[in-house]
Specification:
This protein is an alpha/beta fold and 359 residues long. The protein has 2 domains: 11-165 and 309-357, Medium-chain alcohol dehydrogenases, catalytic domain (Quinone Oxidoreductase, Chain A, domain 1); 167-305, NAD(P)-binding Rossmann-like Domain (Rossmann fold, 3-Layer(aba) Sandwich), CATH 3.40.50. Helix content is 25%, strand content 26%. The protein has 11 helices and 18 strands. The chain has helices at 54-61, 113-116, 157-161, 166-175, 195-204, 216-224, 239-246, 262-271, 293-298, 311-322, 338-346; strands at 11-17, 25-31, 42-52, 72-73, 78-85, 99-102, 105-107, 127-128, 140-144, 149-150, 184-188, 208-213, 229-232, 252-257, 272-280, 302-305, 330-334, 353-357. The strands form 4 sheets. Strands 3, 5, 6, 9, 10, 17 and 18 form a 7-stranded mixed β-sheet that branches. It is globular.
Length: 359
């Protein structure tokens, strides 16, 4: 059987941040890398859609301690098909025409100490989609055959997109939370893009979920997804007391904090029970973790920074979603609407995820 052929343009539409702190702009004059210019191991992906993440907003603002490279095409939750593979690429695990996903970790060396230990996200030579290399807010993107994630046939592209970042991030945090079925997990930010998937992965793993967020829309979403208890932080007078009341006075076994709020972290130390795990996921720009050293030690609390996931975590997270156990709740929009999407993210008006059609 002959390999498929593709008509690849020389220019494309893409959403570009010219420099940090400026508005994202959709442009129609961005170059597409020629298949002849692809290096061994690189592949060109024609995108169907891409998710939008708070990280993309931070990349545009440049408010994280690690600064992005600009000018920049953002985005790191892309799904599309491979239309070209670099010459002299040996033993490629993917092929032309295959549907794949592009993640935050665009590529890792696979040979450094961190990669060999399965911590590819901490690779000393890591490339980050939409941050240090161009990302998925475009019609075509250059990626890497060893790092793209194959997408199963039984999940739609739009449904798979945010699993590649939000899904794998919360899945890994839950996986390493050292909790068992029936134990209590608190999810601050449960109605958000990461949080609503954390509810579902936690229930899939048999955990009991306390969802914390604000507003009726997010309450309904969390309860529909199976949360065992709900706390509205805009109404609650004492979140720590509320968590302890739900857990018969003992506190929760773990907290996976997906919110970027400083309070979401400081409260967790108080409502976790002895030997509880605080899984730090959400990334406030400059906030500090204000934890009582005495009670962290006295209660045996573990504070665990959990940063996206490796290639295997991504495969597992996608497979669970493809089984129907986890669904990303999303709104479908056009790439041309990205500036308004950024504004809505800034103002906390997005429940679930935003997926942009790019083709």
């Amino acid at each position: 059987m002959s390999e498929p052929t593709f008509d690849i343009p020389k220019i494309q539409k893409a959403a570009v941040v010219a420099k940090t702190g400026t508005t994202v702009q959709v442009r129609n004059d961005q170059p597409v890398k020629s298949p002849a210019d692809l290096a061994p191991g690189e592949c060109l992906v024609k995108l169907h859609c891409t998710g939008v993440c708070h990280t993309d907003l931070h990349a545009a603002l440049g408010d994280w301690p690690v600064k992005p490279i600009t000018p920049l095409i953002g985005g790191h939750e892309g799904v599309g098909e491979i239309v070209a593979i670099g010459k002299n690429t040996s033993h490629s695990p993917v092929k032309l025409g295959q549907r794949v996903g592009i993640k935050w970790i665009a590529d890792s060396c696979l040979n450094c100490e961190q990669c060999k230990k399965g911590h590819e996200q901490n690779c000393y030579n890591v490339k980050l989609s939409g941050y240090t290399v161009d990302g998925t807010f475009s019609q075509y993107v250059v990626s890497y055959v060893n790092s793209v994630t194959p997408i199963p046939d039984n999940i739609e592209s739009a449904a798979a997109a945010s699993i590649l970042c939000a899904g794998v991030t919360v899945y890994r945090a839950l996986k390493y939370s050292e909790t068992s079925p029936g134990e209590w997990i608190v999810l601050p930010g449960a109605g958000g893009g990461l949080g609503h998937m954390a509810v579902q992965y936690a229930k899939y793993m048999g955990r009991r979920v306390i969802a914390i967020d604000g507003g009726e829309e997010k309450r309904k979403l969390c309860e529909e997804l199976g949360a065992d208890a709900w706390i509205d932080y805009t109404i609650s007078q004492d979140i720590v007391a509320d968590v302890k009341k739900i857990t018969d006075g003992r506190g929760a076994h773990a907290a996976v904090v997906t919110t970027a709020s400083r309070a979401g972290y400081s409260q967790a130390i108080d409502y976790l029970r002895e030997n509880g795990h605080l899984m730090a996921v959400g990334l406030p720009g400059n906030a500090k973790l204000d934890a009582s050293i005495f009670f962290t030690v006295f209660k045996g609390i573990t504070i665990h920074g959990s940063y996206v996931g490796n290639r295997q975590d991504a495969v597992e997270a996608i497979d669970i979603a493809a089984s129907g156990a986890v669904k990303c709740h999303y709104q479908l929009k056009k790439l041309s609407e990205i500036e308004q999407v950024y504004k809505d993210l800034t103002n906390g008006k997005v429940a679930g995820r935003i997926i942009l059609e790019v083709d």
